[in-house]
Specification:
The chain folds into 4 domains: 163 residues, 8 Propeller (Methanol Dehydrogenase, Chain A), CATH 2.140.10; 53 residues, no CATH class; 225 residues, Rossmann fold; 38 residues, no CATH class. The protein is 20% helix and 33% strand. It has 12 helices and 35 strands. The strands form 8 sheets. The chain has an 8-stranded mixed sheet with strand order 28-29-31-30-32-33-34-35, with helices on both faces. Strands 1-2-3-4 form a 4-stranded antiparallel sheet, with no helix packed on it. A hairpin with a 6-residue loop joins strand 21 and strand 22. Helix 8 runs antiparallel to helix 9. The longest helix has 18 residues. The radius of gyration is 25 Å and the shape is globular.
Length: 655
């Protein structure tokens, strides 16, 4: 099936199919034409990641004045990602192989992109920041260095040394051929390296001050998180309880942080200020009446000062602390009526802006706005093959949990739905669990709706924005999360808006766990389940993380929050649906990537064995070369074609 489908992918078409034709599966899942657009400091050029062919990701630079376009890409299975401007003419970006492995950090100049040169090779390098005072010396975290095979901490990289250029990036260049070359080249660019934090644990994050200078480090030892601040190039432990405080980013004053404050009974968690040296909390900056703050900060590109906060409540929100930006937002909202409008970047003088507009029926469209010239123009529609008039609106509903809380779920109906013709329902549970569903375009949801299914996306305790509603221990109570999804499903069925006899449940990662928990514990509620890359045996999952506990904080965190499977065997058995497969009475579809390092494929294989043992009908799709979630379009198309066939077969009207 995969080979037949791959041959039929019409990737040259960038317009919607005629309204008389069904929308192809691939249109809902195609990589965006363009993503991650960023302006250079003076606002003369936009850089972005673009899609070339089926799944290839290249670099594009566009001149706003001359409209000149320059592109470059890696060879074969190599992709460019994470693009940043070092200055007005020089860019830095990462190169990956097979969508699984980071193989280098490169720099290139506008006008000569094909002569990109490596800054770091085979070092699992990730950008920490580009300091505002010295943009050509970015701070890079060498998580896994080729020479010492361990975390090397943060280094200052000199991006001005252009020796060792790759003559032809498209062919890969022999610069990438040997580890010895990598060590030699890395040494040329590393100016200075900061000390590692004085912790026996694993470093999981670094933070900076508002100007992009290294300032903070976060470690985890046996699940206990510690924060350090940098004082005279030495790490000093901060008296901050990271179980109660979540760091959002630097504040405007030295040593000041914006944080998600501690839980207060009856109040959502607020965005407020904190002194990093003392841990003392300051003024509340922003507090919603219903939702915890869950978002990020928008900064002045010239100074790093916080100008606004972008976050989610029932729909995406932005709050500007700056009056000029408040006025600008009103102008932009008027320019793009009916759409969510977000400023995503600007030049340092606040004259040229990059704006994204979107809705539940429209993927992101990027435009530029020149305030000085009072002009604006379309930069790129990220998914021009999507016809918004054929997409379905997304609505929000409230449901009550069994302990009396009110949570949100997003509901999308197919065009054919009516009171007289209630549609079948797919309950689509999100992963994480510390993530959330939001209002906006969702290709998976629109795909299901196009095939006649209503789709409900329930948020549950643990979903970001809702944690403050519940006791702290509920943030790791997976059984209660399952109960929330069950309560949402039953509430929607009781409304009469969907066919109560045709309900399925579906999800990936933690959502895949919830899908199997649903059919195991609610055998009369669902008629089938779809799970991708799910966890079904939590004891096995904790054990699988033990082997890299010195490089990854997951094992210690799971042990601290969930407990020791050997000591809490009864608890782990109760929350692991692998132990309740004998209760499943409906068909199950199991999918996963064979190279998954987040949730080992062994979880899905064990589920299949248990389904076999108890004669539960199932289908499976395990794909080589894929990790946690399907990265290749051909594999996504095969997966969702198989899923829709499975749903159609098992959610047919009862006679």
């Amino acid at each position: 099936m995969a080979a037949v489908q791959a041959a039929s992918l019409d990737l040259k078409r960038v317009t919607p199919v005629p309204a008389t034709e069904p929308i192809p599966t691939m249109d809902f899942f195609r990589p965006r034409v363009l993503s991650q657009p960023v302006l250079n400091p003076s606002g003369t050029h936009i850089a972005a990641v673009i899609t070339d062919g089926e799944d290839k990701h290249d670099l594009l630079v566009y001149g706003l004045a001359d409209r000149m376009i320059e592109t470059v890409g890696g060879s074969a299975d190599k992709d460019i990602y994470s693009v940043h401007w070092l200055n007005d003419s020089r860019l830095m970006f990462n190169l990956s192989s097979r969508k699984l492995y980071g193989i280098g950090l490169l720099a290139a100049d506008v006008g000569d992109l094909s002569s990109a040169y490596p800054l770091l090779q085979y070092a699992a390098a990730s950008l920490v920041s580009i300091p505002l005072k010295n943009r050509l010396q970015p701070l890079v975290w060498r998580r896994r260095d080729v020479e010492i095979d361990k975390d090397h901490g943060v280094s200052v990289i000199n991006s001005g040394i252009t020796t060792g250029k790759i003559v032809d990036l498209q062919s890969g260049g022999n610069t990438w051929s040997a580890a010895m070359d990598a060590r030699d080249n890395n040494a040329k660019h590393i100016i200075d390296t900061f000390p590692l934090p004085p912790s026996k644990g694993v470093t999981y994050h670094y933070g900076t001050d508002k100007a992009g200078e290294l300032a903070y480090c976060y470690t985890s030892d046996k699940g206990n998180r510690t924060m350090f601040r940098l004082v005279d190039k030495q790490w000093v432990k901060c008296p901050v309880d990271l179980e109660q405080i979540d760091i959002v980013g630097a504040g405007n004053e030295p040593g000041q942080l914006c944080v998600l404050g501690p839980r207060q009974e009856g109040k959502p968690r607020a965005l407020q200020l904190m002194d990093a040296a003392t841990g003392k909390l300051g003024d509340v900056v922003l507090q919603d009446q219903t939702y915890d703050f869950n978002g990020g900060l928008y900064r002045n590109p010239a100074t790093g000062d916080v100008l606004g906060a972008i976050f989610n409540r029932n729909i995406p929100q932005v709050f500007w602390f700056n009056e000029e930006y408040q006025a600008l937002q009103k102008i932009l909202d008027g320019m793009f009526p009916g759409l969510v409008v977000r400023i995503i970047d600007s030049d340092t003088k606040h004259k040229i802006f990059l704006v994204a507009t979107r809705s539940a029926k429209q993927p992101a469209i990027y435009s530029w706005v020149d305030l000085e010239q009072r002009k604006s123009g379309l930069f790129k529609n990220s998914a021009p093959w999507i016809d918004p008039t054929r997409m379905q609106e997304m609505k929000m509903i409230k449901f009550k949990t069994r302990d009396g809380r009110r949570l949100d779920a997003y509901l999308t109906f197919p065009a054919s739905a009516s009171k007289e013709n209630p549609p079948p329902l797919v309950v689509l549970a999100h992963g994480g669990p510390w993530a959330r569903d939001t209002w906006g375009f969702n290709g998976e949801v629109q795909f299901l709706a196009s095939h006649g299914y209503a789709v409900m996306q329930p948020n549950y305790r643990g979903s970001t924005g809702y944690c403050g509603m519940f006791p702290e221990e509920d943030e790791w109570n997976f059984i209660k999360m399952h109960n929330d999804v069950t309560d949402a499903t039953k509430a929607l069925i009781a409304s009469g808006l969907v066919d109560k006899n045709r309900v399925g449940i579906m999800g990936g990662s933690f959502g895949g766990y919830l899908a199997i928990s649903g059919v195991a514990h609610e055998p009369e509620l669902y008629r089938c389940a779809v799970t991708e890359a799910g966890v079904f045996d939590w004891a096995l999952h904790v054990q699988s993380k033990k082997y890299d506990q010195y490089d990854n904080s997951s094992f210690g965190r799971l042990m601290k929050k969930l407990g020791d499977p050997k000591k809490d065997a009864e608890k782990f058995a109760a929350m692991s649906p692998i132990n309740f497969v004998d209760k499943i009475r409906v068909p199950v579809f199991v999918a996963g990537g064979k190279e998954d390092q987040t949730v080992e494929i062994q979880q899905s294989k064990r589920l299949v064995s248990a389904l076999n043992k108890y004669n539960v009908p199932y289908e499976k799709l395990f794909i080589g070369g894929e990790a946690h979630g399907m990265a290749y379009l051909k594999d996504q198309v095969e997966l969702y074609d198989r899923i829709i066939t499975f749903l159609d077969k098992n959610l047919m009207p009862k006679k």
